[in-house]
Give the backbone structure.
Amino acid sequence: MTDWLEHSVQIEVAAPIDLVWNLWYDLEQMPQWMKWIESVQVLEDNPDLSKWKLASGNLRFSWLSRIYKIVPHQIIQWEAVDGLPNRGAIRFYDRHGSSVVKLTVAYGVPRWLIKIMDNLFVGRIVESTLMADMERFRNYAIAIYQKEAGISQK
């Protein structure tokens, strides 16, 4: 049996929703800002499916993910269909010149492992890693926005 652990983080990005959306929608760019994601490969014959590889230290996982809901500039939802059990959503909120991005990730953990691990400790690690990813994303998006807008970076 598997139990699900879920974590959410959000961040405001000083960039327009079009740019923010397009960066997240291009899944293969995610290793640019997601520390644990080693690679993402969208399948040519089915763009709703993508192969993911996660690597952190000696931990290595892979899975096949399916996007099952897209509302442009609002939400992308996914679920793993093979490999590491996970699901989640990335939500976008237009703040007219800036954007709020909320990432929710859930992953399945065997029930026997839940009993022996410290969920609060694991949760803090996962959430701090996700928040650091979001901060890297914000910096990445702002740098692209400034470059496209011809704004000098400080």
Remarks:
- The longest helix spans residues 119-149.
- The chain has a mean pLDDT of 90.
- Helices lie at 17-25, 111-116, 119-149.
